[in-house]
Amino acid sequence: MELYKILNNLRKKIVVNQILFSILLFCTVILFLLLITISLFVTRWFFLVLIPISVYIVYKGNFGISIKDIGRKIEQHFPSVHNKLIPVVELILEHIVNNFVNKGSRQKSFRKEQYSEDLICASIDQMQQQIANLDLTQIINYTKTKLVGIIFIILLLAVFFLRIITPQHFSFGWQLIFNPPQKLISLIVTPGDIFVDKDSVVKIHYQIKAPISSLPSELSFQSKKYFTKDYIYETEILANQNINYQIRIKSPIGLTIMKSPLYRIELFKPIEIKEIVFKYNYPAYTKLSTSNNYGSEIYALKGTKVEFVGTTNIPLKNALRIGRYELDSLETRKNEFKGSFTINVDDSFRFILHGADNRQGKSNWYRIRVANDELPFIKMLLPARDIDLPVSMKLLIGMYAVDDFGLSRFELKYTNPRNNETTNIRLKTIINKSEDSLFYLWDLSKVNLLPGEKISYYGVVYDNDAVSGYKSAQTEIYSIRFPTLAEIYDKTTETNQTAIDRLSPLTVKQEQLSNELERLSEHIKKFREMGWEEKSKLQEIINRQEELMANIRALQQEINNVMTDLSQGLILDKETMEQLEKISNILNEILPEEIKQNLEKLKQAILEKNPELSKALENVKLSSEEMKQALQRALELLKKIQQEEAISNLARKAEEIYKQQSQLNERIIQEKLPPLVVPQTAIGKEIAQLQEEMKMIEKNIDDSLIQRELMNILQELTEMQLQDQINNINNSLNNNNRQAAKNNAGNLLKNLQTLKENLKNLADKYKQKQQEIVTTKMIQIAGELNAISQEQEKIKPSQNREDFRELVIRQQRISESVSLVAETLAKWSGQSLFISPKWVQEIARAIINMENAAKLLEEAVHMNVDTKTIHNLQKDAIYSLDIVTLQILRQAMLAQQPAGMKGGLESLLEALSQMTADQMSLGQGIASIPIPIAGGLTAEQLEQLNRLMSLQSQLRSQLEQLLQEINSGNYGDLPGMTGSMQGALEDMKGIEKDLSELNVSRQTIERQEKVIERLLDAQRSIRQKDYSEKRERQIGKNYTERPTIILDRSLGESNKQLREELLRSLREGYPKEYEVMIKNYFELIMQE
Amino acid sequence: MKRISLLILFQSVFVLMLFAQNDLLKLAENQFHNKNYEDAKKSYQLLTKQFVNNEVAWFGLQNTYIKLGDLKTAQKAINIELSDRLLWGQIRILFYLKQFDTIPQMIFDLARKYPKSEYINDALDLGILLTSVKNDSNALKKYSDALFQYEMDNYDKAINIIKPLLIEPNIVAEYSYLLLAKLYVTKKEVNQAIATLNEFSVKFNKSRLLPKVKYEMGIIYFEILQDTIKAKDIWEDLISDFPESPQSFFARSRLAVLGRGQQPK
């Protein structure tokens, strides 16, 4: 068993070698780890690497190598024994096993292979011999053991080297292996974990204490990192959210040696107001119920008391409300706080809340906005325009006002022109109403206006805001004027000019409309249908046409208003009224009667796609053309009237100036002189103004004859040197030289008389000439028409067909002649209001009939035509011609009447008007006498009294005469008229008596006022009678009984709403041109 | 049977009366035409008495009174609703009675009641005259006298009245010339008539009646004197001098007819 021993020895050697290798390797690794850990301050946990290495070493150590394995290694190493040694080894092992087994139990040895003992021994011996020659130690690997040993020694040297060179470092590293870093390093961090307010700045400070210096550290929070090598570090962080931060102490290579715990910077959780309710208690005057608000904006009226209750997320210790102007301590209870404040100004505030845990919180800002109590709105309903002083001296004022919370009172304010003082009349106190209207009859007699003076007035309304003060609003300022005669004269000129200015652009527009209609009509004729585009265009034309008509109606209304104002005015100028009536008539003739109907039909036709559309369009076209011509005519007429009026006004103004000078001359005799300079200078200015007007008219007038005459008058006026005379009078007045003043004023009056007469003659001449021209032309046209009519009579168709050829020619020529007359008439209709455009239309009918008759006559030459038809056509033509002739004659006759169209009533009115004016002048005289007459009168006053008495006496006798004429029926039936005049007469007698007895008292003045009032009453009655006769005379006609209308129960309410809406819309503004329409509408509503 | 007999009797009487009425009317008309105005008056009076609604009789009576110069009776005699010609007669009477102020209203009444009456043109002519001569009532009165004499067939008397009126250059004078020419034509003194019209043309060369005068002159030449050339000349002058007057158109038609070679009638 020698072989076995050899092999076993070899195995032992191998195992020893392996063990040595493993130990060296393990120690080398330890040394390596130690070196790394100490030098780099790597965490000691790094040594855990040893565990797997140890396991590996043991596992790979091959410490239990078997004989067989050794045999195999030998076979591998020595080829000579390849595949030979192992079987031998197996046999040896088997033999050893069998020997071991049989030694105990004496049993037969087990042989794997049933070789003989000898064979086995032989083979073993053979092998033994072979092996003995081999160096078996070659299979033991001593090289690796040596290598590891060398490495071990190197590392060991390195460790020692480190220990020697950096003993502190080595020591810290060595200790770090056996101790946790916290034991070796001290890290002091402030503030550590902390609560801060949001957005506050947190200062982080830390200090490192370690056995060695230069240990780097790193502060990290959120995603940021701050690296430092200093032992002490400080930085600031904005705490806008919760932040975690940590400090790491690093090794030189950046490995973490130690780290601090994760610190937290946490934001304070605020004291939250979970809910807050503001309760508005509005001021009592608003009558509004309380309301709640949950928002951060408090918007309420001034004076509103706001109560609030809030709840927070934590119990509160105390709470404050801090505003810009206020600081309130609030009542707190558990989580609730409450308080109140009153809104006075715009402000903002916040709550400062202290929690029971001493935590403090601030709320968001709350904004207080003072809501404005809106200003009230007031609208003047009546008269809502500047007017002249009414005849009754009483003015009905209508106002409407509205406010958001209520009204308190209406007032009327007016400014006295003499001292510019504003007088306030409290009209109405309003309680519990946010909307109200007022009608007040204002007695203007107490204002004591004089001619030429004007008072301005306006309505004021106050709201009921007692908290911030009563706010007011006022209407527009209107004026009431006591017009002078000159102003009334200018009224027609103004009105005429307004009409011309407004009509001129309308004429252009109408022409455009006519042209567009013509084009559309042509289009329809050409294509026999209308597309969408044409229909839209047509609709647009209709709208424009209607708008144009509305404009004309508005203008008519304005002129009627002027007339109404004048007719109600204190002074009625007949000529002015006549001129205005002329203008009104001109405008009334512009709109063709059937145009509205035709437009409606056309609209209907468009909507219903009516085949009659073309016809309807044709009718509208005709109406439009007619309107165009009417507009042109109106413009021409207005210009004509303007010229006529201008000259007439000159005469009337001269007359007025003469009257003024005449009165002044009387005052020069009686009164103190220096104060008279002012009226004298005023007269001088009026004369200069008149002269300027004369010059202007002289330049512009188209009648050369009148122009020449006017030039002569102007020349004469210049020669009169009136201004020098006025200067002389003024000098005399200033020097108190009565005689000189009297003489100079006398001369001036004479000159003014000449001027007035010249201008009157000129105006009369101009008017007469114009009238004559028109009348002559009218008569000529009437003659021509009658001649044509007579000629037409002569060409009745006879039975003789041969005559028809001649009749055709004659009929055609007659028709042509009528056309010519129609043209002349149309042309002249623009020259005079007397020539109606309707005559032209009638003549046009005659022409059509004549032309048709001519055509039939022509046909009758060749074929059988009913001559009766022709004759009827001719008859109709004659009828039309005769009608027009008759109308012309009627107008010509009217124009020739000496007083024009003036009736008896007008002359009565004129007399009364004059009488009133005289009585008023007398009244002014009486007013200048001191009351009571204490200590007797001066000689001058006595003379004045006598003069007044004589004047009163004259007036009384005039009135008596008038009364006599009325009673004898000269002016027709005037019921109730004599009553007021009789009263005036009695009062006049009373005044006369007072004056004769030198008993001028308050009663005398009141009597005088009464006389004027009665005379004015009488005039008004006449005017109303005249007016109603003119306007209301109608022929009775049948009417169908209307069905009974059952009114809607809510009609009143809806009307009110409608009115409110309308007023609100008025408040928002409206185009100026609608104002008249809106006012009329209101007046209508009020009347209803 | 009795009823039928009565009916036949009534019918017979009616027919007899109708014949009597017609006969009487014819008689009166003959008397009128023969200028036996007194007898005519009696006949018409009888007729109007017997047959109150006979308008023709009333018209005859009215004309007879005018011819007799008994204007006041003529004015009051009519006891029937006025027909157009009766109304026209009343207008004429008013004119002859010189009640000029009331005439316009009568003319308007005539036109309103009988708008297609053939008398309207004459009435309008009168109206135009009255309107034209408003300021000269004395001349108008004389003119009225002249016209009245003309209507009473007293032509010479009429001419005598009218001649002084021709002196003044006024509208009555213009109308007087026309009336004078008419008088001469009636008296068959055509040349005198033409001379009168020529005198008018010279004297009133700016008158509105001039085209009418010229036209009438042409008519006299053409229709009475049958002097086509002269008529043509006058009408051509008229057309050239007063192209816009209606008479120029009438003249044109006349000339056109002449151009076709038609003979004057």
Largest sheet of chain B: none
**Largest interface, counted by CB within 8 Å of the partner chain's CB:** A-B, 39 and 33 residues
Which of globular, elongated, flat, extended, rod-shaped describes the shape of chain B?
globular
Order of helices and strands of chain B: HHHHHHHHHHHHHH
How does the SSE layout of this entry go?
The complex is a heterodimer of chains A (1088) and B (265).
Chain A: H1 2-40, H2 50-60, H3 67-77, H4 85-105, H5 117-132, H6 143-165, H7 167-178, H8 181-184, E1 186-190, E2 194-196, E3 200-209, E4 217-221, E5 224-228, E6 232-239, E7 243-250, E8 256-259, E9 263-267, E10 273-281, E11 291-293, E12 297-301, E13 305-312, E14 316-323, E15 327-333, E16 336-342, E17 347-355, E18 360-362, E19 366-371, E20 377-382, E21 387-388, E22 394-402, E23 407-415, E24 422-429, E25 435-443, E26 454-463, E27 472-474, E28 478-481, H9 485-527, H10 532-568, H11 574-588, H12 595-608, H13 613-670, H14 677-700, H15 704-720, H16 722-734, H17 738-793, H18 804-829, H19 837-862, H20 867-896, H21 904-927, H22 939-967, H23 977-996, H24 1002-1032, H25 1051-1067, H26 1075-1087
Parallel strand pairs in A: 2-9, 12-19, 21-28
Antiparallel strand pairs in A: 1-3, 3-6, 4-5, 4-7, 7-8, 7-9, 10-11, 10-13, 13-16, 14-15, 14-17, 15-16, 17-18, 17-19, 20-22, 22-25, 23-24, 23-26, 26-27, 26-28
Chain B: H1 2-33, H2 37-50, H3 55-68, H4 71-77, H5 84-96, H6 103-113, H7 120-132, H8 137-151, H9 155-165, H10 171-186, H11 190-203, H12 210-224, H13 228-241, H14 246-259
